[in-house]
Every structure is written in C-alpha cells, then in structure tokens.
Specification:
Blueprint: H1 11-31, H2 34-41, H3 44-54, H4 59-72, H5 76-84, H6 87-93, H7 101-115, E1 128-130, E2 133-136, H8 138-143, H9 152-166, H10 171-177, H11 184-203, H12 212-237, H13 243-260, H14 276-290, H15 293-304, E3 306-308, H16 343-348, H17 357-367, H18 370-383, H19 389-396, H20 400-414, H21 422-428, H22 433-445, H23 449-455, H24 465-478, E4 485-487, H25 493-497
Antiparallel strand pairs: 1-2, 3-4
C-alpha cells in the first residue's frame, strides 16, 4: 500500500525506509547486483519523486539518500541507470526551500555527488540538446547559483562540482559553458576576487590595531585570496576555449589596471583604494599562481615599458615629485589655479599620467620603506620566476650601496630562469647577451639571411619587437583615456638606474 499523505505523525515511516534503501543499494552494488535489479524493477526512483510531490517534509532525507547512493555506486550499469533517468533532472530543478540551510547543504552535496560520476559518456545523459547544440544543463546552471554563497563549505562544493564538469573535456559542454549568459560566471568570479582584495586592504589599514584577532583575520583573508586564485588557475588549466582569455581580460580590466597599478603611483585616500604594499602583494599572488602567459606579459609591458599619454587635465609627476628624463612635459589646464588637479581627478587619471610605473618600482626599491622594497622586488622577480629566498636578504639589508649591489646581482643571476618567453625578454631588451648570441648563431647556421649579419654587427637588434608591440597595444585597450605613444627603452633595467 502506497503512502498518500505525509505529515509530522507518519513522517518517520517514510524517512526510515529511505535510509534503509541507501544502505541496501550500497551493499548490493558491492556484493549482490540483485538488489539494484529489484530497485529498477519496482521503479523506486519514481516513488522518490512521488513522495516528494506529496510533501517536502522528507526533502532532507531524500537528498541524503540520493547522495549516499550516487557516491557509493561503483557499477557502470547502476550509474548509467540513475543518470539516464530523467527523474534525476527533476530532483535537480525541484523548487526546494533553500532558506533552510541544512536542506541547502544536502542539496549541494547531492549535486556534487552527481558531478563526481561524470565522464565523456555520462555527462551527455544530463544535458538537453537540439540540433547537436546543448540548450539545457540543469546540473551546472543550478549549481552556480550558489557559487558566491556566504557559507565557505557551499562555495567549496560548488567549485569542486564546476571543476569536475570542466575537466570532463566534452566539446559541446565546453561551448555551452563559454557562451552567453553562462560565461558571466567567470566575470563574477573576478568581481568576487576583487572584493576579497578590497577587504584585505581594509584589514591592512595603518589605523588597524595590531592584535591576535586582527592577525587571524588577515591570515584568513590571505588564505581566501590564495584559494580564489588557485581555483581560477584550475579553471584555466581545464583548457576550455575562450575561458582563459575571458578570465585574463577580466582580471586586467576589473582589477589590475583600474586598481592595482594605479595604487603604485598615488597614496590611498579612502577605503576603496588599495595601498601600494597591498597592490604589490596581490600582483605577486596573481602572477605566481595563475601563470597565464598573456597576463604576465601584459603586466610586464606595463611595468617595464615607458608609457606616455596625453589626456586633458593630466599632470605628469614622478613619485618623488620630479619629472623623469624621458617623460614628456605635462599639459596642465591653465584655467585651474596653479594647474593642480583635485585629489579625486588625480586618482582617476593616475594610470594615464606620463609617469612611468617602472620609475615607481625603482623609486620604491631605492628610497621606499622595507615593505615597499620587498614588494617591488617580489613583483619583478615573480615575473622572472625566481626563488624567494633572496628577498629575505634584500629585506634585511639597510645599507644603500649594498642594496644596489644586491639588486644588480639579483636581476642578472636570475634572468636565466625567466617565466617570460625569451622572445618577450629580447623585445624588452633584457635577454642575457649569451642567449642573444646563441639565438643569432642558430639563425646563421640554418641559413637565415639576417642571422650572420646581426651576429657580427656592432649592436645586435632584436627581431621580436612585434610580440612586444602586441602587448603594448593591449595597454591602449585597458586604459580609459587612449594612449597615443607607447615605447620601450631597450636597455638593462637595473643598470640604467644605478
């Protein structure tokens, strides 16, 4: 006799059998397949849906039962039966009351359990297609609804689920994920990460009282930032077309160019701006963990190359108050008293001033405090993929001349293991001379016309400026005010400033 009414009086008569079913199916999958054959014969999955429609009182136990069954089933036959049944999508899309935190936790665990059984054969069972195009994927769509939930465990479960889907490598699913409106998820990831960066900056405010509690909050914030970056790195490593580019562009447009790089030039005036030390730290984390070539090369071009622009009401100043020798004269609005900009305008246009970010980094190294020295060197050496042990030496050195010597040694010793491509280093003018000669000798040996001429020329000219120009042109895209002149001084970075 089937149950027709479920209420507080008889709910235990339904919940207890649900628990027993999970145990029996798990045992039968490992010892006696007749258990699962009986499960299919009696259409128990259909009964699950029927009792859920009768009452939501048993929702938690039903989700728990399904999760236990899916997680523990090893037989391909059993897994195919559960996933091929359209009833699984009914449970995924059922309008549960997610105001109940316990129910939400079990629901997300249920979704994650399903994702753990996905491969190129089973994932097609959960999608709806029309003309060989996926038009519906409830598992993914419902899961990312909770991607930014306040509960850390729920966020972690959703991220694990998405990575399980991404790493299946199904072409049609990847296309579905990377198209509108589902690609908005990756943009939201970068925005979420940006908010975490702003929160960290607030914890590092000079007005924050140093205490065990504040230290614990800072450590937790840094851990969360690392977790976010490692997740983004895992997403990129899945190799979904366009997703890596989308994450790179979003990171540059929403965080690096509007917030991190400008913070290297101006002082923080409100809680929304990042301090220079925080920005340097975040740049290190981003470059070290993401390891995206285009991202690293674009940041390197912005930091090392001389960037000049002419915009209205932009005053070009160096951090220390005087103009760089190679900077253009600033164009100041004569109508404003003294030609000075107000603080808000200066902050808004800080990225577009003729001041060079390279000069800012060198200024921090030569005259900044210990934190700025370490932060600047960390950024540069992260780009060069160096070992961090040298930073401890630099951090402890206070003598001005010794610091210069260490910086010089630091750069030349570690150019050999650069993260950037050799072609990019050559275009920037910082490829070691030995590698330049080796490259030109190889060209001469294989019969290229210009190789021998360049090899024995008084000054070797780089042939890789085209790649550099690609990244320089990108700077125009990411800036609000168009840049009208971009160039790179081809000389060794440190020697010029020693």
């Amino acid at each position: 006799m089937k149950v027709q009414v479920i209420n507080d009086v008889n709910k235990d008569f339904v919940i207890n059998p649900l628990r027993s079913i999970a145990e029996l199916i798990t045992y039968g999958d490992q010892h006696d397949l007749n258990f699962f054959e009986f499960f299919m014969e009696k259409k128990v999955m259909g009964e699950f849906v029927r009792i859920l429609k009768i009452s939501k009182i048993v929702s938690v136990q039903l989700l728990q039962t399904m999760s236990i069954m899916i997680q523990n089933l090893k037989s391909d036959h059993s897994i195919y039966y559960l996933l091929s049944n359209e009833l699984i999508n009914f449970l995924i899309t059922y309008p549960f009351d997610f105001r109940d935190e316990e129910l939400l936790s079990y629901y997300v665990s249920f979704l994650r359990a399903i994702s753990g059984k996905l491969n190129k054969n089973t994932i097609s069972l959960l999608v709806k297609t029309e003309k060989e195009e996926i038009v519906s994927f409830p598992l993914y769509v419902e899961a990312i609804r909770f991607a930014f939930h306040e509960d850390d465990m729920i966020r972690a479960a959703v991220r694990a689920l998405t990575l399980n889907i991404y790493h299946v490598g199904d072409i049609h699913v990847n296309k579905y994920i990377a198209t509108t409106p589902h690609d908005k998820y990756f943009l939201d990831l970068v925005k979420f990460f940006r908010e975490r960066c702003i929160s960290l900056n607030g914890l590092l405010s000079p007005t924050t009282e140093c205490s065990p509690e504040s230290t614990s909050k800072i450590v937790s914030a840094v851990d969360e930032i690392e977790d976010n970056l490692y997740y983004l790195s895992d997403v990129v490593s899945a190799g979904i077309p366009d997703v890596g580019t989308l994450i790179t562009d979003s990171m540059l447009k929403l965080l690096i160019f509007p917030m991190l790089l400008p913070s290297l030039r101006i002082e923080v005036s409100d809680g929304k701006k990042l301090s220079s030390v925080t920005s340097l730290c975040l740049l290190c984390y981003i470059l070290r963990i993401l390891k995206i070539k285009d991202l690293a090369n674009t940041v390197a071009a912005a930091l090392i190359c001389s960037v000049e622009s002419f915009g209205p009401n932009i005053e070009a100043k160096r951090l220390d108050g005087f103009m760089a020798d190679h900077d253009k004269e600033s164009h100041v609005d004569d109508e404003k008293p003294g030609g000075n900009l107000d603080s808000n305008s200066a902050q808004h246009n800080c990225w577009h001033s003729a001041s060079v970010l390279r000069d800012a980094l060198i200024s921090y190294i030569t005259s900044g405090d210990d934190m700025q020295v370490v932060g600047s060197l960390s950024v540069l050496t992260t780009l060069l993929q160096t070992k961090g042990c040298m930073l401890l030496i630099i951090h402890t050195v206070t003598c001005f001349m010794i610091r210069y010597i260490l910086i010089t040694f630091f750069f030349f010793f570690f150019f050999e293991i650069s993260e950037l491509d050799e072609s990019m280093l050559d275009a920037l003018g910082i490829l070691p001379r030995r590698k330049q000669h080796k490259k030109l000798l190889l060209k001469a040996l294989i019969g290229e016309d210009t190789g021998e001429e360049q090899l024995f020329a008084p000054e070797n000219c780089s042939s890789n400026e085209v790649e550099l120009n690609i990244y320089l042109q990108r700077l125009k895209v990411y800036c609000v005010i168009p840049l009208v002149n971009l160039h790179c001084d081809k000389c060794y970075l440190v020697i010029k400033f020693l």
